[in-house]
Amino acid sequence: MKAQIITIGDELLIGQTVDTNSAWMGSELSSLGFDVCRRISIHDLRLDILDVLAEVSGKSDVVLITGGLGPTSDDITKQTLCEFFKTKLVTDHEVLDMIEEMYKQRNWPMNENNRRQAEVPEACRVLKNRAGTAPGIWFEKDKTIFVSMPGVPHEMKHIMNEHILPELKKRFSSQAIIHKNIMTYGIGEASLAEILTGFEETLPKELKLAYLPASGIIKLRLTATGQDKRYLNTIMTEQIKKLYTTIPELIFAEDEESFEMVIGNLLKENGKTISTAESCTGGRIASMLTSIPGSSQYFKGSVIAYDNSIKTDVLGVSQEILEKFGAVSRETVEKMAEGARSLLKTDYAVATSGIAGPDGGNELKPVGTVCIAVSSPSGTISEKRRFGNERIANINRFSIAALHLVWRQITCQ
Amino acid sequence: MKAQIITIGDELLIGQTVDTNSAWMGSELSSLGFDVCRRISIHDLRLDILDVLAEVSGKSDVVLITGGLGPTSDDITKQTLCEFFKTKLVTDHEVLDMIEEMYKQRNWPMNENNRRQAEVPEACRVLKNRAGTAPGIWFEKDKTIFVSMPGVPHEMKHIMNEHILPELKKRFSSQAIIHKNIMTYGIGEASLAEILTGFEETLPKELKLAYLPASGIIKLRLTATGQDKRYLNTIMTEQIKKLYTTIPELIFAEDEESFEMVIGNLLKENGKTISTAESCTGGRIASMLTSIPGSSQYFKGSVIAYDNSIKTDVLGVSQEILEKFGAVSRETVEKMAEGARSLLKTDYAVATSGIAGPDGGNELKPVGTVCIAVSSPSGTISEKRRFGNERIANINRFSIAALHLVWRQITCQ
């Protein structure tokens, strides 16, 4: 069960639009058990479209195509499909009625371009689009199903959900695929791979392991492929269990959960609150925590103390500590966390101070150095860490390291 | 001048990762005058990689490849490139030294997998990667340049900026291309396009205008293509001037400058400082301001007052105002801005309070409502605005709207 995805549009190639359609379609096809073996983006050009259609024909069971079905002169997918499938455009009166009705309801004037949206290839099956004007177009040739959809994401999703996914599910239900993600933190990709050598070598043949690192977090993705979904579920559960016993201290979540989600859930469950006192991360940690819907239940606020005067005047860090240990020190961040916890009246407070770069480093405290503290009802803990040279990457890594320390403190790992 | 982009990784095909690398590389290649004619994503599978390399070979001047250079067993790009280019892996001692130095600095243990990162194809040119451990790999065959890079976005960008883009610029410079971006804010894409109809119709034939909208900011990109660079520069300057007279109040910067950069430069020039008092934006504005290197010169700090108690206890908003007008009101944000300005002792302070969603809205103040205030030596101004329903998009748009108000106040537009 192979599938390919073709996205058509100049805007994708010159990088004006990030191709989120492919990701969404890939995810849906995978969950039906398809192996999405290739994704191709091409220009809105007749010859490029004809070339790619000839290439993929007969090589996959399904080819999903988006883009180029709009009403303007640069949209040529429909005409080119007619050429490839040796048919011609005819007006579909049901589609035309739908479009006319839509324009009437919204009180929009209707022109020749809009009416042309109801023209479809004579030899295709028409998939109605209640989210827009361009219908989906379904062809079959050389044992390959070709479906062409508009590139507007919500229209594509509507046609996929309404017509394509149910039909594919009915017709292709032989092979099953299960994905499971385990989120880890605290060790580099190479070292993690070393620890997991034995685990990987003894994986059942139906299972595949992939490492997906991002800002210090490594997502381990297990994929099971086979005929028997129940069996796949069983071996998946077994292997996940094995993973938990192999690297218990490194796993912080499953699937796509982030530290801010996990921490949010833990705080909500326990009825606890949190605040931040940020120097080098400049509000990034607060911003991550508040990106989660409902975070106002446990996040109360922050003091961003970029300037030392705010560390002393607002957070109450003493001048002595700042002078003796410096702003980037475990002593200072501990006092910052305690100050925030008391000022903002929260159960937990996390503080950071470091050198994100590109300037400000010295031999003792080079760019990439960060001190982190977490203050909580059971006391204050802190650590000093060292990352790289790139400012934005550092701010991200500092923030994730800080959230990791919060998570450790809450779960007492 | 044709280019193709190949991204390797199962995560791209099953839609776990959105392929932002392709968009970035496509945009950079286009700006050098390359026609990016195809983008392909494939599995981490030897045969798939060999197939696609054979397909693209000789068909483009440049092929950029990302992904599969990591240290784990699912990363097979390097070995497969060796097979395709008929060469073998050898240890590059300069790269090994760099990796060892990096691990020493960070106090990380080094293992066999890390050392293997220094293995490179014998016949390739090695592009050093100071942002990570996997170097870039440059091959030439059949008049096609192949460059393989790690898939981690900041490492890929580092290698592109440091090595690939300068080299491509040197070698492919037959036709001149000039890009110029004009950054606008304050009006929708359709309305802006309507205002600029006349401007667009009278553009010299060498010039093309594109609209690139993101979070309320619309970047107008003018591209001039031709043989005579001096002439292109002349007509570009003329048209930019015309644009400034057509939409003077909408332009806030040129090229890729963001509000946080423009504001940072203005504050530095005038020796002024800024702070923030954020409710619904939860630290996002502070995070944007401090993403700029050197921002400690003008950014002093923030109070994030998610909880009303922090608005009253720390920022000094009176209980009467909160009760009479509500947390999401111009009155409240004005007091928040004034409170932050006085507590944090800055020249400017910007405050936000709103409903990012998905919950918390009501008929009078629906999700997407935000109030913004800026307090400055010349007084306090505020506005109430309304955006969409999506939380993350709202937080971004609120923050940009707030920075826009700061910019207007500093420049008194």
Helix share, percent of chain A: 40-55%
What's the end-to-end separation of chain A, in Å? 44 Å
Q: What is the CATH topology classification name of the largest domain in chain A? A: Molybdenum Cofactor Biosythetic Enzyme, Chain A
Count the domains of chain A. Answer: 3
- Can you tell me the residue ranges of chain A where pLDDT is under 50 for at least 5 consecutive residues? none
User: What's the helix count of chain A?
Assistant: 16
Describe the biggest sheet of chain A? Answer: 6 strands, mixed
CATH class of the largest domain in chain A: Alpha Beta
Radius of gyration of chain A (CA) equals 28 Å
Strand content of chain A: 25-35%
Greatest chain-chain interface?
A-B, 90 and 90 residues
Mean of pLDDT of chain A: 93
Total beta strands of chain A: 17
Describe the structure.
The structure is a homodimer of 413-residue chains. Helices cover 41% and strands 26% of the residues of chain A. In chain A, the strands form 4 sheets. A 6-stranded mixed sheet of chain A has the order 2-1-3-8-7-6, sandwiched between helices. A 5-stranded mixed sheet of chain A has the order 14-13-15-16-17, with helices on both faces. The first copy, chain A, has a 4-stranded antiparallel sheet with strand order 10-11-9-12. Chain A starts with a strand and ends with a helix. Chain A is α/β, with parallel strands linked by helices and 413 residues long. The model of chain A has no long low-confidence stretch (mean pLDDT 93). Chain A has helices at residues 10-13, 20-31, 46-56, 77-84, 93-106, 112-116, 153-171, 189-195, 197-201, 229-246, 259-270, 284-289, 308-313, 319-325, 330-343, 391-411, and strands spanning 2-8, 35-42, 62-66, 89-91, 119-121, 125-127, 136-141, 144-149, 176-185, 207-214, 217-226, 251-254, 274-278, 299-305, 348-354, 369-376, 379-386. Chain A has 3 domains: 2-171, MoaB/Mog-like domain (Molybdenum Cofactor Biosythetic Enzyme, Chain A, 3-Layer(aba) Sandwich), CATH 3.40.980.10; 176-254, Alpha-Beta Plaits (2-Layer Sandwich); 259-411, CinA-like (Maf protein, Alpha-Beta Complex), CATH 3.90.950. Chains A and B meet through helix 2, strand 2, helix 8, strand 10 and helix 12 of A and helix 1, helix 2, strand 2, helix 6 and helix 12 of B.
